[in-house]
């Protein structure tokens, strides 16, 4: 019985022990100036293209180096290369951007080249601030990543004299998620009405290929009744109740000429094509041509033949 009491006493004593661990605050990356500094602005910032407004959050303080009191400041932003606010992709494509400095304790102001913005209200302690980044949406990105390097300069003034200054370099990586789309693709009606023996039956369909985050695309065509997409003996085939008719198909990335490309045995169109519009795809910019040879349709023994043609486009 005594052994049981001793054990309970030990368990009770153990239950009163608490483990206390100190969890340090997340380390900040601050510029070296104690009186005029930013934290978490220097370095690399990855932004997503999709939101309308992109934000780089950091902290900022501006106080007198002598009294420690809040002291107003001015700001100027400059690119580390070139003479404009832009982001550049590996393929050379350029996006124009603009910046706004938005301290939580002062009114937001746009930052322009070779111009001091301000004055902004100072603060004795680190205060939340952000750089708002706007992308010129007049141009559709043709790459999935854009980069740029910039330098923010902060300055305190007494009359016309600079009393303190600080510079911070930072990089921006803009990520663009590629998206490709096909619109306005409809049915193609083929008929031998008005077609004389010895003439091919021809038809075509106009549609749109567009997207964002890429500059070129590839095309594959496959037939549900043909060997490119099914079990037929011909790459592309129309099928009736008990028999099939082969047809040929070609692709053009414009509507102005018949300089179209024919697919290989697996349905792939050789080469790649330039993306000409964005995701909205308002106007048609591509075409497929379908041809049934006279030697094939003249032997048809059924009134109706159909096929499901699949057009696959892949961003490059």
TrEMBL record:
Residues 1-27 form the signal peptide. Keywords: Signal. This is Spore coat protein U domain-containing protein. It comes from Microbulbifer echini. The lineage of its organism: Bacteria, Pseudomonadati, Pseudomonadota, Gammaproteobacteria, Cellvibrionales.
């Amino acid at each position: 019985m005594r052994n049981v009491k001793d054990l309970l006493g030990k368990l009770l004593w153990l239950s009163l022990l608490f483990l206390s661990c100190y969890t340090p605050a997340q380390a900040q990356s601050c510029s070296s100036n104690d009186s005029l500094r930013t934290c978490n602005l220097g370095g690399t910032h990855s932004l997503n293209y999709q939101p309308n407004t992109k934000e780089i959050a950091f902290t900022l303080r501006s106080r007198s180096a002598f009294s420690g009191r809040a002291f107003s400041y001015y700001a100027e932003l400059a690119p580390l290369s070139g003479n404009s606010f832009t982001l550049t992709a590996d393929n050379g494509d350029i996006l124009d951007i603009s910046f706004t400095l938005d301290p939580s304790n002062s009114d937001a102001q746009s930052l322009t080249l070779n111009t001091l913005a301000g004055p902004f209200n100072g603060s004795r302690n680190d205060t939340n601030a952000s750089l708002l980044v706007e992308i010129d949406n007049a141009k559709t990105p043709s790459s999935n990543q854009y980069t740029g390097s910039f330098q923010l300069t902060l300055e305190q003034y007494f009359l016309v004299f600079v009393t303190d200054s600080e510079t911070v370099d930072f990089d921006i990586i803009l990520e663009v998620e590629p998206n490709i789309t096909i619109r306005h693709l409809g049915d193609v009606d083929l008929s031998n009405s008005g077609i004389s023996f010895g003439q091919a039956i021809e038809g075509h369909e106009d549609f749109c290929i567009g997207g964002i985050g890429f500059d070129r695309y590839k095309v594959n065509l496959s037939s549900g009744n043909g060997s490119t997409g099914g079990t037929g003996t011909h790459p592309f085939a129309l099928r009736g109740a008990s028999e099939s008719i082969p047809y040929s198909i070609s692709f053009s990335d414009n509507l102005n000429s018949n300089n179209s490309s024919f697919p290989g045995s697996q349905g792939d169109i050789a080469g790649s094509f330039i993306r000409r519009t964005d995701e909205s795809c308002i106007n048609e910019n591509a075409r497929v041509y379908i041809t049934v040879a006279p030697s094939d349709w003249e032997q048809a023994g059924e009134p109706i033949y159909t096929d499901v043609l699949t057009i696959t486009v892949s961003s490059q």
